[in-house]
Please model this.
Amino acid sequence: MDIRSQVSMIFHLDKCIGCHTCSIACKNIWTDRKGAEYMWWNNVETKPGTGYPTKWEDQEVYQGGWKKSGDSIELRGAGHKKSLLNIFHNPHMPVIDDYYEPFTYKYLDLIEAPDMPDQPTARPVSMITGKPIDIKMGPNWDDDMSGTPDYARKDPNLKGLSAAEQEAMFQLERLAFYYLPRICNHCLNPACVASCPSGAIYKRGEDGIVLINQNVCRAWRMCVTACPYKKTYYNWSSGKSEKCILCYPRLEAGHAPACMHSCVGRIRYLGVVLYDADKIHEVASCKEEDLVKAQLDMILDPFDPAVIQAAKKNGVADSTIKAAQYSPTYKFVKEWGLALPLHPEFRTLPMLFYVPPLLPVMASVKEINNKDQAAKAGPITKIWEDQWLYDTSTAELFGSIEQARMPMKYLANLFSAGDEAPVKDRLQKLMAVRIYRRWKTVGDIDQKKVDEVLKGVNLTYEKCDDIYYLTSLAKFDDRFVIPAAHREHAIEMLEFTGDRKGSTGFGFKENSALRGL
Amino acid sequence: MTHVRSFRVVSLFSFTSILFFSLMTLLSEPLSADEGETIFAQTCAACHSIGEGRRVGPDLKNVHERRSQAWLQSFIKSSQSMVSSGDADAVKVFDEYGKMVMPDMPFTDAQIASVINHIKTASGGGGGTPVAAEPAMEAPVATDQDVARGRDLFQGIQRFGNGGPSCNSCHEASGAEVFGGGKLAVDLTGAFGRLGGTGIKGVLSGLPFPAMKHAYRKGPISDDESFALVAFLEKVSKETVQPKNYAMQMLGGGIGGLVVLFGLFGTIWGRRKKGTINREIYDRQVKSEISSDWRE
Model:
């Protein structure tokens, strides 16, 4: 056993309101720079939709991630042999038009324009050329399913749905969507790290954050192709690739990452999990139908004495083990089994888990008799001629899941490599907690029925209370259990602490010549 | 003073009159056949015979009966200008003799007339047709040693007795065991086939080509040397298969190869990502007009 700790995240999709506050927080802190204008280390997509960059999930186009090769795995679009055969050509990269041409507005014109017959407007200008442009695309161009059928109907996750099922999804009365916020998954088997010819990308030992060393990066951009989530970006100004750093400077200081801290819906959770690194290759190479289960099995029980002992032996700090025991991620993923990884079929073992959204229920139209009602109406009352009712009630306990407007297969394509069973299991648990809470607060449900429901999904009253608490009432320290950074351990490994003390702190990073002296 | 002057006048007069009469003589009637014979032997005989069959050029027996005097005059003066002007007879002869250029002769009209006179005389008026084209067999049969000697002479491994330059200074004979050769003059690989032994011998002794004439003026090639060279060129000519002209095949192959190559590229890399996948959306979007009063 090779026990390591990993900072792992939960995004609760039922709570996401699609406000993009996370994206703006990230943009303001990290990517509001020259060369990074088009980057959104955090972005929020509307699903169904094509996302950002367009169709990032379609690996036929971008050739990202791993594919199974015999008993092992290989990178789909990169690697030594492929690189040599292509003479280092990297044709599957997204181009700027697959993202969008970054733009801003000439706001100063609003106040500095001379007196003219018309109101001044702030015209859009390209942040690449500085010239006025027609905005053609944005990072959330299909937000709230806006735009044309070019977006939602071209969602790669519609694969495997019959033409009739797809058509039904886009009928006006059944139309439904939800949001999918995305950051770097800080995978256990990152394709970006494996693809880098310079060895510039690494996974931090102490917390598993995947970083690009800006001094080592040589602009190969193999990581841009290899990351199936398209979460590494090339900075055209610095000539280096960049990606989400999970706000590690904030984490080291005990703060939550900016996107999580700013989240309005409080959908984001962050905590440490302990996993067995010896199993990475085996799990990443397993059969597609076993991927989800195998990945979740890698995450170990932080209360198990054997795990604690092995972790300590491996240099995992006591404070980290303690943080793992309080980790909201562990609870959502393992204890309650409510969360799933995004696109496990890319085989990168992502460490960002999503609680799938409880889908809007499909309503039925019932024939009713409105005549009595109409007779009561006064002379000026509007009388509805229609003799039907839009009915959302169901006879079955989990009937609403069966009758969801969005096919289960669609969610399964996103969160469980096409296997509907894990998604259904999560949704039933979420529904069970709701039924339990309705019994507790409204009381119009029979307790027997509640017991029956909870038994069916293996939950208890206590667990339901815990889920309810962490979902709806959780405080900051419950949502973000950030272990101490223990930078001292990392420093001790590199240099003598006596030298370090007295040589850092106040001073200049650059030498005097670089400061113009 | 007067005496001297009158002497000068007399001498000037007599000189002028001599010049005048000699010119009159030159223009009025051809020079003697003797001079024509000399010129023929020195210049023409390298390539032509009278009644001994064709060599490099045609047998000139009774040529005055086949062609007009004027035609002969101008052809000898400059055969190529006649060919290029499209004279049917001139073109026919030029084509028949392997497009071998007859050098322009720097002779006066009178000298040419004397040569034609000599041909008339030598033809003897009898028998219209020239003798069969096959040249007489060489008396001695060339041995392997002769061939080897010829090759050495050609390459300059063995020097010519009179100090003339080796053949491969200007010529090439590809295919034989000859290393390299000049590109200044014609390739002699097939020279034997074109000229025959007599022709080559004639060229080597008569030196009808100006450059060759200049090169071997002081050191002519001896008979046994030219015999060896002929033996060598005969062997080269017989053993060398003239390379086929592959120009059209090369072009066809190139075009065909290109099609196959592009087809291959298309099959291997046809599904590669080309440009943006949003192209369709972008192309459909309407472009706004940017007014001229837009302030940058």
Observations:
- The mean pLDDT of chain A is 90.
